[in-house]
Amino acid sequence: xxxxxxxxxxxxxxxxxxxxxTITQKNPDDVxxxxxxxxxxxxxxxxxxxxxxxxxxxxxxxxxxxxxxxLDPQMVEDICLGNVNDGKAAYKIRAAALAAGFPNTxxxxxxxxxCSSGLKAVQDIANQISNGxxxxxxxxxxxxxxxxxxxxxxPFHPDIAKHQEAADxxxxxxxxxxxxxxxxxxxxxxxxxxxxxxYNRAERAxxxxxxxxxxxxxxxxxxxxxxxxxxxxxxTKDEGPRWGTTFESLQKVRPAFxxxxxxxxxxNSSQVTDGAAAILLMKRxxxxxxxxxxxxxxxxxxxxxxxxxxxxxxxxxxxxxLMSKFHxxxxxxxxxxxxxxxxxMAVYCLDVLGLDRAKMNPRGGAIALGHPLGTTGARQIVxxxxxxxxxxxxxxxxxxxxxxxxxxxxxxxNEQ
Length: 416
What we know:
Blueprint: H1 2-13, H2 20-23, E1 31-38, E2 42-43, H3 54-69, E3 78-82, H4 89-99, E4 107-111, H5 117-130, E5 136-144, H6 158-161, H7 164-168, H8 173-183, H9 188-208, E6 218-223, E7 230-235, H10 247-251, E8 273-283, H11 284-290, E9 296-305, H12 314-325, E10 335-338, H13 343-353, H14 366-369, H15 376-391, E11 395-402, E12 406-414
Parallel strand pairs: 3-4, 3-5, 10-11
Antiparallel strand pairs: 1-8, 1-9, 2-8, 5-8, 6-7, 9-12, 11-12
Helix pairs in contact: 3-4, 5-15, 8-13, 9-13, 12-13
């Protein structure tokens, strides 16, 4: 403990010296992850969570967090929910936490930065822990896309809309994907080949049982569309992977956004999905005091912006920004979890960043697994750390593009 404290002091005295050897050091004040779990991801509107409301999704996951962590809920000081579509999310996370057995002294809030909301929740809790505002906190990403959401249907005020980039924030996501394909000459063939690989990796991971240590069973009620009767189901596997998907079969899928282009399809775009994930965080010394297993270290996260009309390229900007802060290069990172909002942006980021394809989304990504908007930023951490444990690797970097033209990235060290 004394040597760890000395290392911590030296790092504070020389804050610019960061590298792989530095970020993998273990210090008492490190912010660490002691639990990282998620529900299965279910197909929106027709899957196992289509009739599950957000509050019940949260309530069930929070009870599971209590059971699996065996941590006194009195010690959890704040819960932050990343959610995009539900304007009443702040009410629901607070009520769900109280019903799940957390005391009224455990605060709760919601945060929305579109597709990065889950990672933003992790960052917010980690920052509070790091600056001493709280000792222990819980970050959650959750989304019921079956419930729909607050779509921006009305134009902005005329004074705002006359600014082109401000007006571009209204562009549908499918249009921005086609913009990326056109602007950077990313062919339909390249997008379908990428998507086929995503499906194949998810199929291999699912058949091999690789997801089993990250997924917790989720029991809920599903309404039969014909009889109107509800029946209880327990979900244990992701519903998105389509076994046997090939490049040839994807080539037959019609364009999904013909008004804007002919490259993005339902086969090479992320799936509309329901699901949730949870990340429990505290300082290393607190985890040791409470007997919590240390899964990983949270190093940091950053955000950046880009042109709204090509929002998909966000990770290509956020990843170098984050890596520069820690003086890392691509070879230092073992696993890149980059959200596959569309194959267009995934191919672009892969090529522009010069990544090793084997390191990027080794279990497949949102094209095969699904993209519950507020969940993804937390889900990527859960999946990435599980894969790091399987491979015996250390450095995980997660990233995603963000609607209206942004990108976010987070850095983690596996310690299992």
